[in-house]
Input
Amino acid sequence: MKETGIVRRIDELGRVVIPKELRKTLKLKEGEQMEIFTTGDKSLVLRRYSALAAGADVSQAYCDAIYRATGKGAVICDSATVLGASGAHYRELVGEEISDRLYKTLDGRKACDPQSPVQIARDKHVAVGNQHIVPLIVGGDLYGGVVLCSDAAISSTEAKLCALAADLIAATLE
Output
């Protein structure tokens, strides 16, 4: 485990403040759910909770279904990590941290066809010509997104299929 050199006290209500610079680096927002647990060496671990990641098998199944229906690459991510991917070279992105640009695009909270392709993973680049990106919004909160990728044009029907997948996933998280 990497040590940061930051020490914080527990207040009278048992709270610990996560320093602003760490929240910014980890893209943690106010109100975001965190999972707390202990390890065998009596360490306390605090990590981002993702209800979407808990159903990663479902995310992969959706990606596989979208790929079978469209022949185009499909990626599903939470707000930090790629959870499922199908088609071309996209499967290798599963488990990778999403790029800052994809996060910002999703945080715009509107489906879009970006003018220039958005890199999906921070540290792995997969070339793609066209994308349709749909954020997963549940109760006003950003949970992740569905990305359809192809060198060929993406039709309005395929974009609607991508939006349908996002809506169905969001419904399971409500």
Observations:
- The chain has a mean pLDDT of 88.
